[in-house]
Fold each of these.
Amino acid sequence: MDINQITKVSVFDFDGTLIDTTMPDIGKKMWKDATGEDYPHKGWWGRRESLDIDIYPNDVFPDMQAEYNKAKADENTFVTLCTGRITPLANQVQAILNKHNLKFDDIALTGDKRFNDGASNTLAFKINYLNSLQKQFPNLKQIEFWDDRDEHQTTFIQWGKLQTISVHIHHVKRG
């Protein structure tokens, strides 16, 4: 890929935006039904088990599949995944993407040292990642970003208004 040809970046969040990942309450019951044992952790989001492709469907949301397909069809668009899931879960995230034949030009998980820049949380990490994309592509004209977290939207929108390129923040709302 010639970085000089990239004029647009499409960034997709993972959980609840692109992938219908299982929520903890339901997931722990599904784990018990599938394994006969209690879910082995108190936490959910940072655990490999929460993304087990043999237990959870982790399907692609149809509306996001369409957006992904549109982005992938444009040869001048760099298509990337940026998630709050942490770097030790990279294999589990990749297994879900492989299951659905989703191929990204880059995948950034929270804690990825390439983009961390001291970020202490998912929101700061994602802002750092978005900033890095502008530095990476000299002819970038547009960033499009899909994310479902209500509490992050104001920050993303404010960040977008400060940029010298076109930024479209899509607040994905589910049920």
Amino acid sequence: MIDPAAAEIALLARLERLGIAYARHAHAPVFTVDEARALRGALPGGHAKNLFLKDKKDRLFLVVAEEEAAVDMKALERLLGAARLSFGRAELMAEVLGVAPGSVTPFAAMNAAPGRLTVALDRHLMGFDPVNFHPMRNDATLALAPGDLVAFLASCGHVPVAVDFRQPSPAPI
């Protein structure tokens, strides 16, 4: 069983060790972009939808897209060099990311072994400051600078790729 409180404590400790500043905002649990939009009020910055995907070769992807981005799975396959993307099962998500459905976040990459997961960040989302994500649980939001998110991911052994849903190929961030 996943303990969201313990997962958040581990995340916050890691952010503090890295010297990454953040603001935490508590709210009612949210499971969809629409629910988050209704609850967040005037919380500034970029907001995301996070997709845990696998392809037919069992490669895993965490796609962090701006909440309004149109995610075309066929186009995403081309952008990521993936074959037949589908959503990862909840059991696989718990095993690899240590989170439950509704709590997927780029911060969960800290639980994935380096090389096990490709993290793809939406270029448009990374143009906002701050960027906002669940802290391993869906009843709070952490706001931080986009560069700090990239530094956090790199500290976990996951150098993200940038994906522009308007362009034909990914690039390093």
